[in-house]
Amino acid sequence: TRTFIASKIPKYQENLLEEIKRIKEEIADSVSEYSKFSEVENFGKKKIEKLGYKKYHAFMHGIGIDVHEYLPEEIRDGITFTIEPGIYTKNFGIRFEDVYVIKRGKAVRL
To answer: Which one of 7, 40, 41, 96 is at 20 to 30 Å from 49 when CA atoms are compared?
Structure first.
């Protein structure tokens, strides 16, 4: 999932786009620091809340037979999942989603 800009946007929205992209990368990098997916999700929530947003898109879900699968609690090699931080306001929304796999304890983007 990607956010595309159809017209000129205010600078604060442009800056927010970059912040959400950066947060997605920080969430991916944080996977190796935690042993549970819930800890990674909490890390992401804190990053978005620090920007002042309380309403945000779910951060992660598993990928398998169904598109949206529950993640196991423990982070293990071979698990495929998404990282998709996003925020929504009355006037606009931003979300970036990539699919990752755990390989040697790290999130590797596919």
So the answer is: 7
